[in-house]
Specification:
heterodimer; B: mainly beta; 4-stranded antiparallel β-sheet
């Protein structure tokens, strides 16, 4: 089992719709969870971090964490063509300096 | 607004050459990381460092070494470059427990 798993996609949504990206992780000791956006040919950019169960909202983005289910998700409301990118889920364990990344989900938002 | 810089965006080297990739961060972060990113394989951790002169092996350290003589600088060394080391190399830094700030990446081609 991979440490961090994401739906490989690609995921395609129409402009204005909600895009839902999902991620599961295997290490129950994980404490910090992150979503990165990566445009083609560019390096990943941190867009959301979440550390406790529940929802965290930032503009059109909402991260959701359920530690009991070992599940973290990212919702993008009112999706725009500029949101088209690969989204990487990442997990950091407690007292552990390294980060584990999922393989990424490619999102396409169609005008 | 520069945070993490890498010495080269594109690099072409010959098989057997010794290759140095430099990374500098200006945020006084304790942790620094080197990843490689390949299509279909995602981000794979090569080495990371949580303090000056400290280093830890990641998932794929073979054929690589690192050096961290100053807090702001983390170097990746390919002792004898091989064609299977052709990849995008990404440097990142972070304070615990926050997410990474990535550099722009170095696309290395070994011929």
């Amino acid at each position: 089992q991979k440490e961090v798993e994401q739906n490989s996609g690609p995921l395609s949504v129409p402009e204005g719709a909600i895009a839902s990206l999902n991620c599961t992780y295997s290490d129950r000791g994980s404490q910090s969870f992150f979503w990165y956006r990566q445009y083609s040919g560019k390096s990943p950019e941190l867009i959301m971090s979440i550390y406790s169960n529940g929802d965290k909202e930032d503009g059109r983005f909402t991260a959701q964490l359920n530690k009991a289910s070992q599940y973290v998700s990212l919702l993008i409301r009112d999706s725009q063509p500029s949101d088209s990118a690969t989204y990487l889920c990442a997990v950091r364990a407690r007292n552990n300096n390294d980060m584990r990344f999922g393989a990424g989900t490619r999102l396409t938002v169609k005008p | 607004d520069v945070k993490v810089t890498q010495s080269s965006r594109y690099l072409v080297k010959r098989t057997g050459e010794k290759v140095f990739l430099e990374c500098v961060q200006d945020m006084d972060h304790e942790n620094m990381f080197w990843y490689r990113q390949d299509p279909g394989l995602g981000l794979r951790l090569i080495y990371f460092s949580y303090d000056v002169k400290m280093k830890e092996k990641g998932d794929i350290p073979e054929g690589y070494s690192v050096s961290r003589e100053k807090k702001e600088r983390f170097s990746l060394i390919l002792e004898s470059a091989s064609t299977n080391q052709t990849s995008m190399y990404l440097c990142a830094s972070s304070p615990q427990p926050s997410g990474h700030d990535f550099g722009p990446g170095t696309r290395l081609t070994v011929t």
